[in-house]
Amino acid sequence: MRFMVGPMDQSYADESYEVVVVGGGAAGLSGAVALARSRRQVLVVDAGEPRNAPATHVHNFLTRDGTPPSQIYAAGRDEVARYGGHVETGRVTALSRDGDRFRVQIGDRAVAARRLLIATGLRDELPAVPGLAARWGIDVLHCPYCHGWEVRDQRVGILATGPAAMHQALLFRQLTQDVTVLQHTAPDLAGEQREQLAALGIAVIEGTVAEVEADSGGLAGVRLADGRRVALEALIVAPRATARAELLAPLGLTPAEVQLGGHVMGTRIEADATGATGVPGVWVAGNVADIQAQVITSAAAGLMAGAAINADLVMEDAQRAADAHRHQPPHGEQAWDDRYRSQPEIWGGAPNAVLAAEVPDLPPGTAFDAGAGEGGDACWLAARGWKVTASDISSVALERAAARARQLGLDITWLHADLARVPAPGTYDLVTSHFLHLPAADRKTVFRHLADAVAPGGTLLVVGHEPGDMPRPELAEMGWTAAELAAELGQGWTVQVAEARKRQATGPAGKGITIHDAVLRARRA
Ligand SMILES: Cc1cc2nc3c(=O)[nH]c(=O)nc-3n(C[C@H](O)[C@H](O)[C@H](O)COP(=O)(O)OP(=O)(O)OC[C@H]3O[C@@H](n4cnc5c(N)ncnc54)[C@H](O)[C@@H]3O)c2cc1C
């Protein structure tokens, strides 16, 4: 399933996934299955060149022993698709970060992803001996667990290019008694190593191998630079295993060397046990992270990474939901009661700044305070001689407000009412409301009720947040401008103030910020 995302540049805005998996071998497909089964929108992009493509069969994969590699990958693709994941044949040509997402270039198209699973495998860089590459994966081999059983009891040569040769000689000696080490370009063997090889009947032939020879029956053997020939049925090599990780450099990830006895065996992208790299949002699995990984362990690493990515997305989504919930202004009686119950005091007792600035020039009379909350404004007015009626939708807030008034010895009439449903009772010399944020339809009704409650000659003072100051864009409709409200007043009013008034406040990160109060002050004729 493809889905639309927010305001990104149109060239790739219309195709976005939660996870893009680069590479669809055992690691990538296994990670994708875990993600698709977790109902993640996942895309696997695979160039279709798995490392073991030259081999006819896969071994040491429990329950799949002897299966051709292509069959395993086809079945893996089907499994991803069965759970709603997408697999496509193609090559990812570039990766870059774009805010909290990644831009994934696939030829001339780009898609967006929240997370990346890189499972691009490795490149086997074979020793540069003529004739060798043509036999790779057939009878030029590297791994006793992949093909050792298949060459048991055969004449096996070890092409020594580094310290791995000794290791390979001993491992293949477990499978056949006919093992020969071809010294080729490797440093001299230590005395202790020669002793072990001799004791096991492993011959060591000095000299460089000039050519790998084959005939219609397969590998014939090797020809040394000095012309000698060694007949062999299998030749074991230790290719340099280079992580296919060039794509990751722009994201800040470069491969580290993997060494054995001071000899560079290959490179890998370093990651923790789940495949998480040092770059947030980027996971690796399989041979790109571990040059020793087999098909089944690559699949296992893919599963680990897929599960870790899913968990990471779950945590991020939970945090986003909590943030949204926190910033969502409550709406309705129950929501406001819950909000007030969640803290012993929310607003503090100080009057709103605009009220304190605008009211002192008015002679005290009757006042109606809509959305009185914990009573700070109502008490402030009452203390200045106003005869106050204060309303709120929340009885929890009103109990607190009444307690505050009692403590201050103030006589205020408290009214539990939803002004979107019922008008204010009577008329008043001052009708005031501060930061009453409602969906647009309710706001119009409440505002009409407030305007109707102003006595002739009385003052309406309404203060709110400008739409641009609302904490999240989708809440902007709960903000309003003073000009909008002034336009709704109609005939019989003198607008005294209709402005966006700057005020210093503390932002979410504890930093000082400037916000804008929408201030409407109007006098009724
Ligand atoms: C000759 C040979 C025989 C082997 N036999 C066995 C065996 O019998 N049993 C066993 O367990 N192991 C065997 N292995 C090892 C096995 O091949 C690896 O363990 C395994 O392939 C690693 O899986 P992977 O998913 O990490 O990488 P790969 O299988 O190499 O898959 C990586 C995929 O990523 C794709 N890719 C790379 N770059 C991009 C890109 N930019 N955009 C899109 N796609 C990309 C590649 O085309 C490839 O399809 C053998 C290896 C060799 C060389």
What this model shows, in words?
By secondary structure, this protein is of the alpha/beta class. The chain folds into three domains: 10-122 and 241-321, FAD/NAD(P)-binding domain, CATH 3.50.50; 127-238, FAD/NAD(P)-binding domain (3-Layer(bba) Sandwich), CATH 3.50.50; 333-524, Vaccinia Virus protein VP39 (Rossmann fold, 3-Layer(aba) Sandwich). Helix content is 27%, strand content 30%. The chain is built from 13 helices and 26 strands. It has helices at 10-13, 26-37, 69-82, 144-147, 164-173, 191-199, 295-327, 333-341, 353-358, 376-383, 395-408, 440-452, 482-489; strands at residues 16-22, 42-46, 86-89, 92-98, 101-106, 109-118, 122-125, 140-141, 156-159, 179-182, 203-205, 209-215, 218-224, 229-231, 234-236, 240-243, 256-260, 263-268, 282-284, 366-370, 387-392, 413-416, 428-434, 454-465, 493-506, 512-524. Strands 1, 2, 3, 4, 5, 6 and 19 form a seven-stranded mixed beta sheet that branches. A seven-stranded mixed beta sheet has the order 22-21-20-23-24-26-25, with helices on both faces. The protein has a five-stranded parallel beta sheet with strand order 8-15-9-10-11, covered by helices on one side. Helix 2 (26-37) packs parallel to helix 3 and helix 2 runs parallel beside helix 7. The longest helix has 33 residues, at 295-327. The radius of gyration is 38 Å and the shape is rod-shaped. It starts with 9 loop residues before the first helix and ends with a strand. It binds flavin-adenine dinucleotide. Flavin-adenine dinucleotide is lined by residues 22-28, 45-52, 54-55, 58-61, 91-92, 119-121, 124, 137, 146, 244, 247, 286-287, 293-296, 298.
